[in-house]
Amino acid sequence: MKPIPFKIDRNNRVNIPEQLANGFRMAIRSGYYKQGEKLPSFAEIVEALDISIRAPRDAMKILIDENLVRSRPRIGCEVMARGEKVWKGRVLGVVCAAFEGSYYISILVGAIRKAIIAAGYSFIPVTIDRKKNGRPDFSQLDAMMKEPVDFVIAVHPDDHIAKRIVRHGVPALAHVDVQKAAGLDVVRLFSIRDIIEIARKVRPSGIRKVLLAEYAEMPFVADVFMKHGIDVERLKVKPKEGFGYLEDIKRKAFFSLRERLSDRKDLPDLILFTDDFVAFGGLMALVDLQIRVPQDVKVLTMANKGFAPVFPVSLAQVVIDPIANGVAIAEAALAKMENRRRRPPLPRLVFLPGDSLPTTHNSFTT
User: Fold this and answer.
1) Greatest extent of the chain over all pairs of C-alpha atoms, in Å
2) E strand or H helix at 320, and its extent?
3) Phi-psi category of residue 229: left, alpha or beta, with phi > 0 → left and psi -120 to 50 → alpha
4) Three-state DSSP class for 220?
């Protein structure tokens, strides 16, 4: 067996199947594995890299979808010849490695990929990691751009990533919450109208002061609430970047909120958690301090559908659906590629009341 020309980095935020797919993809495109050449068997990959048997299976599914590899019964996976199967086009899905472990991003990108492939386009994930000096590593993106690419979907790109994509001159759009995505067409996580509706709904509940617990800065949320006569204090959670940063968000949220509320003086009327992981840590701090919900403070959390924190009191939630959002983002990209009229960017946010925020409304869509 020809030696596998890459290693698995177990400290990398990118999961093992994606690392395998990335490694074999680069090896195929560099010519290390030739057209028609048989790739190592699953058993050989498992033995060489000390991984589970499921990882190479999942990796090969990705490469098969990308039209790089085909599976032949009793033979294995081999590199396909160029032009052996024709897709309508090639779409890159660009994600910063810092978001790889995010529930929302993982589900969202999976939904985008499924919709793009169903429409007849290949979908190739590209991960932007950081070098030791802290700068983005664009080697994988630049290598992909040497091949024909019809469109790029960038998920939460910072300005460095957005500018790099613009430099390549390929049609693209970016899915963002607060980022500007310099030069790229933007599909936002939610609109200002969504936030206005949330502010209008909480004010009748006697809310006059809100503590906004966030790790991705959302100044426009504070601005909208203040314009509706609600005072806002922003509590910034600052996780350490790198492996395990999602767990660090929980830890930092716990300690930050516990420090802010430890003397139990000047409690806000409402704590608004803008992220699931911030909510997980912040709610633990409320329990630790024996602050009662909703008697002492009310709580509202932005939550991914199917991934809301569990709490003794039912939580009022602003629900974000990553699957529906992924389908909508894919549709926006397809409409742009095929010169069709673009549909509304994303489904509206859904507010689900709970005992943590008593309200006269049973439920509503913003």
Assistant:
1) 71
2) strand 316-320
3) left
4) helix
**Complete domains list, the chain, with CATH:** 1-85 (1.10.10.10), 87-188 (3.40.50.2300), 192-321+349-365 (3.40.50.2300)
In this predicted model, what pLDDT tens digit does every residue of 51-70 receive, in sequence order? 999 999 999 988 887 778 88
What pLDDT, on the 0 to 100 scale, is given for residue 308?
A: 80
Average pLDDT, the chain: 85
Task: Quick: pLDDT tens for 153-168.
Answer: 999 888 889 999 999 9
Q: Which of 45-49, 197-201, 282-286 has the lowest mean pLDDT?
A: 197-201
Q: Tokens 């030069």 — which residue?
A: 183
Neighbour-count burial of 227, counting CB atoms closer than 10 A to its CB (0-12 exposed, 13-18 middle, 19+ buried): exposed
Give residue 240's pLDDT: 75
From the number of C-beta atoms within 10 Å of its C-beta (0-12, 13-18, 19+), residue 337 rates as middle
- Could you give the count of Cα atoms lying within 13 Å of 269 in the half-sphere of its Cβ? 14
**Which amino acid makes up residue 215?**
Y
- pTM of this prediction? 0.74
Paired sense of beta strands 298-304 and 316-320, if any:
parallel
* Cis geometry, peptide bond prior to residue 294 (ω within 30 degrees of 0): yes
Q: Are strands 350-352 and 364-365 parallel, antiparallel or unpaired?
A: antiparallel
Match 């169903």 to its residue by tokens.
Answer: 118
- List, for residues 122-149, the tens digit of each pLDDT value: 898 898 988 878 788 998 899 888 888 9
Percentages helix, strand, coil for the chain, rounded to the nearest 5? 40, 20, 40
Residue 19's SS3 state is helix
Using the 8-state DSSP alphabet, how is residue 112 labeled? H
Peptide bond into 125 cis (omega under 30): no
